[in-house]
Each structure stands twice: as structure tokens, then as C-alpha cells.
Amino acid sequence: MSEFEIRRDGDRLEVILLGDLTASVVPVLRPALMSALEEGGTEVEFDFDKTVVIDSTGIGFLIAAYNSLQKKTGTVRIVQASNDIFRLLQSMRLEKRLSVATR
User: Fold this and answer.
1) d(CA 50, CA 19)
2) Helix, strand, or coil here: 78?
3) I want to staple 80 with a disulfide (CB 3.0 to 4.6 A). Which of 23, 45, 49, 74 is the partner?
4) What is the spatial distance between Cα 71 and Cα 82, in angstroms, rounded to a whole number?
5) 21: which residues sit within 8 A by CB, 6+ positions away?
6) CA angle, corner 69, sides to 71 and 61, nearest 5?
7) What is the CA radius of gyration of the chain?
């Protein structure tokens, strides 16, 4: 079973995480997202509804995705984040850059 799904709706990609965003997931998610972006897309929305844990590799991945999309004048959004994840990203001053919305 995959730990994520990527859905396309025009220029928007929705990345639905089916668990945590950690070092075990990022090596599989990164190439899948890059491949999807090569087919077109300027907006990526990460759905964190089922995400409880995000580690430093996951945070690095989100920052890299944000930086890549900024070059294309794109956007990154996180939706359905738990309050704990929101506070973590807020402590790193990433909540506005990644447009984090809580549950």
C-alpha cells in the first residue's frame, strides 16, 4: 500500500498523505511529485488529515517543494494540519510561507 496519493486537477496537484511525512516516505514521494510536476502544475496542496508526525526530512522536503514551485511562480499549501504540526511549522516561521490551514 502506498503512503500517499497524488491527484491532478488542472494545474493543481493534491498530495494526500496516508500517514506521516518522515524519512521513510520522502524518498518515494519526492520523485513521484517531481514527475507529476514535470507533466504540468503550479500549485501543490498537501493534505495532512492523516498525518501525525513530520520529521526533519519531511520539513526539508516541504521547503524544497516550496522553493521549486517559487521558481515557477507556483504555490504550496498544507491543509488539514493538526494543531501540533501547525505549532511546529509556526515555530520555524514556515506557517505563512507554506500557507498552513488546520483541521
Assistant:
1) 5
2) strand
3) 49
4) 29
5) 29, 46, 48, 51, 53, 54, 55, 58, 61, 62
6) 120
7) 12
The pLDDT value recorded for residue 71 is 86
Tens digits of pLDDT across the chain (103 residues): 479 999 999 889 999 999 999 999 999 999 999 999 988 888 999 999 999 999 999 999 999 999 999 888 889 999 999 999 999 999 999 999 999 999 8
Cell digits for 36? Answer: 507529476
For residues 63 and 57, give the distance between their C-alpha atoms in angstroms, rounded to a whole number.
10
